[in-house]
Amino acid sequence: MKYFKDTEADLNNVIVITGNFNIRDSYWDPSFPHHLIHADHLLKIADLFNLERLLPINLVLTRYADNLNDSNSIIDLMFLRGYSEKFDTHSILLDMRDPFNHTFLTINIAIQEELIQEKRLSFYKRSEKEEDSIKKTQSKSWGHQYFDY
Fold it and tell me: Are 76 and 105 in contact (CB under 8 A)?
């Protein structure tokens, strides 16, 4: 979360943020009795990116403790831009866990097919046009302007 707070101005066009945020909170985990300021910070950051928290289709825990001293919890969340009926939920794969006892979160996002116009320039190898193109490219990358005397 600190990464997002420190770099929010450098991130553009964020569509989805998901992962283990390590924030237990009653807002998303009904078994946890407290509301913490860290949850408010996370929601504020998501809002800055115009993201909304998605509700899972199956409300189950996302982290399962590997010892008796810790409790199971919901700390893995998903936020998405363009909240709509098509993308208003995600699934938690309860029977699949990573090595750290976290479940996998999944969502299907349809991507519309788009035609991209492409223009190609070609010329013969070692031709005058090739040499001119190379000189112009090099002069631009070095910050110099190329003059043909």
Answer: yes
> 31: which residues sit within 8 A by CB, 6+ positions away?
61, 71, 72, 73, 74
Are the CB atoms for 74 and 62 separated by under 8 Å? yes
The pTM assigned to this predicted structure is: 0.59
CA distance 30 to 139: 62
74-131 residue pLDDT tens: 888 888 886 666 666 677 776 776 677 888 888 777 667 777 777 777 778 888 888 8
Domain boundaries in the chain? 2-106
**Three state DSSP letters for 1-40:** CHHHHHHHHHCCCCCEEEEECCCCCCCCCCCCCCCCHHHH
Amino acid at 9: A
State the Cα angle at 112 between 108 and 116, rounded to 5°: 140
Return the CATH class of domain 2-106: alpha beta
